[in-house]
Amino acid sequence: MQPILQMLHDVNIVAILCKQWGDTGKGKFVDLLAAEWADIIARGNGGANAGHTICRNGRQFITHMVPSGILHDADGKINVIGRGVALDPRALCEELEMLSQAGFSYDHLYVSHQAHLVLPQHLLLDRVREGNLGEARIGTTGRGQGPVFSDHVARSGLIVNDLLNPDLLVKKIKANLVDKVRLLSHPDYDPEVIKEVLQHSHLGNGDFYNSKSILDLDAIVEAYLGYGKRIKDLIRDTEQLIQNSVLTKNILLEGAQGILLDVDYGTYPYVTASGSCLDSLARGVGLKSEQVGLTLGMVKAFYITRVGEGPFPTEIGGDASAKWCGQPEMTKERELRCYRGADINSPDPFLQGVAIRIRGDEYGATTRRPRRVGWSDSLMTRYSHWPTTTQVVLTKVDVLSEMDEINICSEYTYEGPPYRYAQHEYRIGTRLRHAVPDSFVLKHCEPQYHRYPGWLQPISGTRDYADLPLNLRRLIQNYAVQAEMNVRMISVGPRPEETIVVPDGYTKAV
Ligand code: IMP
Question: For a substitution probing ligand 1, which of 23, 126, 140 has the most ligand atoms within 8 Å of its CB?
Fold first, then answer.
């Protein structure tokens, strides 16, 4: 821990966010810094679509709403769900129950009174819209993010503070519901599908269904009045709390999703509905991004993942992988039944991708969907610096320890129909040395790789950078140079101690 504390000695606000399509292992680092450094841990974006995995005493805890610092509540650490978060009170109450049952307290957990409130109609709309989109679906997590943030910008959304004022809450839920029922009554939406979706456990197991008006206002109001009572004491003006702590406390901001899923900077439209860059995260807890002293961007290496639909140039196994992972009924268990023995060095890219997924346990923390797997991509990593940091933590590096050969994408070749992108004209064979956040272009890009020999030995016990195998150090240096990033830490296993702080000047030849 000492080297990490040294690294943070002159900052008191640190942000941890992901530079890819999410799922880069932020939870471990938030937990680690929460234990040793932070006084306050705050989330400021996303919602229950995020899944944060924390390991403790051989057990895995997956949280969706509460920050990953929650397991340190008993030590007086404050956890905050900021104003930028879409708060699903059902999911929060379920998580509080899970924490209590596991013997963890949440006495210092606070929810911003300004956070956006997720309602059953948001979850319902998210799911039925996805169903209607067919081939054009986004592959959302079904947690209502699109509709709740649409309501926010349409100025018809509710906020957590409404839970504290029952009369107003009823009026606002009613107004919001009228609007949604009108929408859902359109012939585009199949009443039978709506009825079926409403049977989901996240939607009250059918309690919110009403045969006359689609959604039952009374049932929703009753449920939300109940949530209000349950979380009343957690609701605070958290912005004031954070502003008052800026000079006296160490504050850790925990990002959700990743830069490539950011609604503005990501691979639109295959993105989430809120911002994942530093500005959104800081704003979502009531800070200015300039107040953040250090931003650490998580970069999974030496493979990457993506959940849901959308372009993924370096996907191992290409379309076959995307199709396999995109099947609605696909689960980890089903994949293991079919491919348990898949070889990480298989000459068949599809099987190789499956093997990496199994080895890295790459199944959605929120949805349990298999994550699509691809090679590290220098172009995308470089692109992600633009809206955020070049200070990077390489995560899950131990996963490919038995791989003979590792690829890193260094260039794309455009293989699609003629396409104008701003001032550029792309034709078959156009070479791209920089990623562009355009789904049409990315869909038609063929990756060109640099190949490197693997390091072929376990590394989880290594604590010093100099003790890592030579092939791995070369790989890290090459990736750092190609992707123009400064590697500050390396994660070599899920446990907090399985972390290496990279000394300054690591890019020197070894
Ligand atoms: P939504 O955020 O549920 O609307 O989903 C939009 C896209 O973002 C889908 O491709 C999801 O799979 C993806 N997504 C949302 N949250 C996460 C996350 O925490 N990790 C990885 N992908 C995510």
Answer: 140
CA of 10 to the centre of ligand 1 (A): 34
Q: Tokens 């376990």 belong to which residue?
A: 458
Structure tokens at 69: 């610092």
Look up tokens 């609007």; give the residue: 179
| CA–centroid distance, residue 437 to ligand 1 (Å) | 17
Tens of pLDDT, residue by residue over 243-261, are: 999 999 999 999 999 999 9
- The per-residue DSSP string of 214-270 comes to EE-HHHHHHHHHHHHHHHGGGEE-HHHHHHHHTTTS-EEEE--S-GGG-TTTSSTTS
pLDDT reading at 507 higher than 80: no
pTM: 0.96
pLDDT band at 508; cut points 50, 70, 90: very low
Question: Measuring CA to CA, which residue among 234, 220, 204 is closest to residue 96?
Answer: 234
Angle (CA) 53 58 64, round 5°: 20
The active-site residue, picked from 31, 39, 52, 398, is 52
450 is known as an active-site residue = no
Instruction: State residue 506's pLDDT score.
Output: 65
Query: Which two structure tokens, joined as six digits, stand for 308?
Result: 């849901």
Q: Please identify, by atom number, the ligand 1 atom nearest to the C-alpha of residue 49.
A: 16
Q: How far apart are alpha carbons 214 and 223 in whole angstroms? A: 17
Please tell me the distance between residue 271's alpha carbon and the centre of ligand 1 in angstroms: 7
